[in-house]
Amino acid sequence: MAAVSETLLASLLVLSIRVSGFPLDKEAKQSRSCGYESCHPTKHNMLNVHLVPHTHDDVGWLKTVDQYYYGDRNDIQHAGVQYILDSVVDQLLKNPDRRFIYVETAFFYRWWKQQSAAMQQTVRQLVNEGRLEFVNGGWCMSDEATTHYSAVIDQMTMGLRFLNETFGPCGRPRVAWHIDPFGHAREHASMFAQMGFDGFFFGRVDYQDRSRRMVKKEQELLWRASDSLTPPSADLFTGILPNGYNPPEGFCWDQSCSDPPIRDDPDLEDYNVDEVVEQFLTVAHNQSLVYKTNHIIMTMGSDFQYENANLWYKNLDKLIRYVNALQANGSKVNVLYSTPSCYLQELHRANLTWALKTDDFFPYADDAHDFWTGYFTSRPALKHYERISNSNLQTCNQLEVLGGPTSRKGPFGKGTSQTLKNAMAVAQHHDAVSGTEKQHVANDYAKRLAGGWQHCQVLVSNSLAALSGSTSRRIFCDSLNISVCPLTESSRKFSVNMYNPLGRAVVWPVRLPVNGSAYEVLDAKGRSVDCEVLPVSSATREVRRNRGYALNELVFEAQAPPLGFTTYSVSLLKNEPPPAPLQHRTPMAIQNKFLRVTFDPDTGLMSGLSNLKTKQTIKLTQNFYWYNASDGNNSASDQPSGAYIFRPNSSTPFLISTTAQTESVQRPGVQEVRQRFAPWVSQVVRLYAHSRAVELEWTVGPLPIDDNLGKEVITRLDTSIKTSQYFYTDSNSREMLQRKTDFRPTWHLKQSEPIAGNYYPINSRAFIKDDVDQLTVVTDRSQGGSSIYNGSLEIMLHRRLLYDDVRGVAEPLNETSDVFPEGLVVRGRLLLFLDRPASAADTYRPLAQKVVLQPMLTFTDGDLQPNTELEFSGLQAALPPAVHLLTLTQWDEDLVLLRLEHQFQRWESKVNSQPVTINLQKLFSTMKVVGMSELNLSANQWKDEMRRFEWTPQTGERPLLRTFQDPSVWEVTLRPMEIRTFLLRVR
């Protein structure tokens, strides 16, 4: 009886969540005829040409997001998004047949908030009638190569939630639309499928791939985007648009275009209707030859078009009228206003089979020497700042939930995460984190992230005060990577609070800039903690440019509980004497209980790596090189390297130095070999006492250009592993994909760029392996990389170029700053470890999550307040190793959005690639879950109401969607690579 009561109670609470969680406009619900119901009829015995009026509005590129919205700085580019939306709405009202799609919710949200109630109601009616349709619906159109999946999910959720709450079901996009990103990630397709999209359209595809697909009529296909999720969970119909995202040549009628308008008065000169119609029929016929059905799509618009929508619609009205008039004379062409979803519906009705694809669309080239693989690394400092900002945002979201209402308005004032959410969402744009924007726009993205973090700091301080009982002022030190923190440099006694956003305990090395020579560190239970005082490296002193004055670093390993914090007290013991001097000879080896790293004493370079637990040893050398960037003047293709394109003028990079000057530090807690290869390249090879990975902390820059040569700097690991041309990279930091040098799974590659044509995005990890050994590298940001030679793995770290690559940004990628006017200095970390292939994922999966979601350190000066809680965990118990807590964020006053994911692929681990069951009522320590309901991945549909089109691959099989029964009302089971999203009512 108790079980029945619990089930009934849960059902009632689920219902209450549904009623309160997704408010709908009742009037709109009654009168709507949107989505597939709003499509214009087609003619089954004709070629139906779907005209899709659209605009592509970059959320920052040549101008900042604000400048684009308002139409400022038109000297750079004429573009004003607010005028586009004003003009389109006006024109849609003049003819009910007209259609328009809009994509970037970040812009639409701004415009919507400025409209009168009457105008908002007018727009709602247009949406309810399907005349204005939203596609994609994220805050932006994200990049696919350099984004982390968690940030992509967040920005899609934010945009789709606004559309859901503003327009109800008619605001929900049916189609994903990534017309401009430069290559397409398999994980993005998987996410879009799990978000409920029926199809996906994009514009850019490799020129060789497109040519083959045109011949075989495979520009529309079924993409199986996961090797772990049961089909068709991650199957997504995918269409490659015929003209990128532009109109056919000769049919652009925007104020930014120069094509002649349709002149249809026969009494006037230059009457051209017959000529235009004939030209259009030719274009339509030619396009139909390379697509599979009697339906074709034409994108009628482009970048920031429709500012004067009358120009477009007046000519499109005429085009439709005059082409269709020929049907009376036997023409078999039918032209109509349409949308991507209406076009998709007709393809689905055709009930055909479609080519099946299981790899991805990287790398992308638009010609033989034009590989868009440079942006995998462009602006490495911004890429890292975006990744750190994501970690800060997740911590901010979690603490808002755990700390309760006090987090938002507490002892330190009103705190909010919304500003950082907005900044992070904008930063996912395909000309933001990608590094393909103008310099002043990159500065604006960074400024927004910094401003958002300032707002979040108030929330974090309030929450930690509520959870710890201490209202002492908290200090944030955001420059610890260059040993700068005024508090720790000057204070004789302070405390360190370490918050861990992961769902399991974490051990993390804490490095604090200090000026004393001996310290006492006590943990939350008052026990003494082993610590070391090391001299600050010369590279750090150079890079901080008088922004800090610490001579030493205090180093200790801290351990924080899952989804919680711990507190360490630090006291100065003495200032003299200084730490033991550095050794200037290269040690033969550094090692802990897990790993041993050997060095060549003559060169100062690494020579080998051993896993002491598995008794593995490989030869391993590592060094730094630079590719000479092509300037485009001495090649047949005339294509220089730039923000987008990587084009070295030789396949052989220049070695920066055959030897490294070294200093070494060998202490019980940490061992370091500090290497200097050139005035602008240095590295610390570091091994902590309890680490399973070797840390390579690299510092590169300013890249010298006094020789007038652009430089693209790589580090290369050369090993004894027999790779047979294969290597592996991650897709948006989730599933691993196999790569092979000079090979594409989909078509026979004619390789024209042996370096750039083999580069792939690395979001968080890459590895090489044979039957015995696997060497894995975990990165701290998105970077480009490859395995050009058997047994090697190279990663591009920094780029400085002197020429534009003629892809629109119109300035070279030559970053400087006020602090570094001679060129940007970038610092980062690679984590390196050796394991058996069968068990490597058990290490690299949690390690990569730990790098992405780093512990947050806050500081208080002096003694701790009495009765301060020094340790806290928001979980009743640590999550199992296979389960990652992806999202914990406040949704409404008593509603919390939770995402749990299984972080292993089904083939990766004998131990962890098994289903795992979690009890949601036994998850949290500070709140009770009293109701729950499951949503789709983007949290804009109830999971059990999500219906998607079914498609049949050419293999003939049509997999049925399997549904798995959870063990009980509160227990949920996660299978490999599954993400489950829940709306929880808590108290």
From TrEMBL:
InterPro entries named among the record's database cross-references: Gal_mutarotase_sf_dom, GH38_C, Glyco_hydro/deAcase_b/a-brl, Glyco_hydro_38_C, Glyco_hydro_38_cen, Glyco_hydro_38_cen_sf, Glyco_hydro_38_N, Glyco_hydro_38_N_sf
Any one GO BP annotation for this protein: mannose metabolic process
Catalytic activity annotation: Hydrolysis of terminal, non-reducing alpha-D-mannose residues in alpha-D-mannosides
Cofactors named for this entry: Zn(2+)
Name of one Pfam family that matches: Glyco_hydro_38N
Keyword vocabulary terms for this entry: Disulfide bond, Glycoprotein, Glycosidase, Hydrolase, Metal-binding, Signal, Zinc
Enzyme class: hydrolase
EC number: 3.2.1.-
CDD domains assigned to the protein according to its UniProt record, in alphabetical order: GH38N_AMII_LAM_like
Residue ranges occupied by any Glycoside hydrolase family 38 central domain in the UniProt entry: 370-449
Family as reported in the entry's similarity comment: Belongs to the glycosyl hydrolase 38 family.
Name of the protein: Alpha-mannosidase
Organism: Takifugu flavidus (sansaifugu)
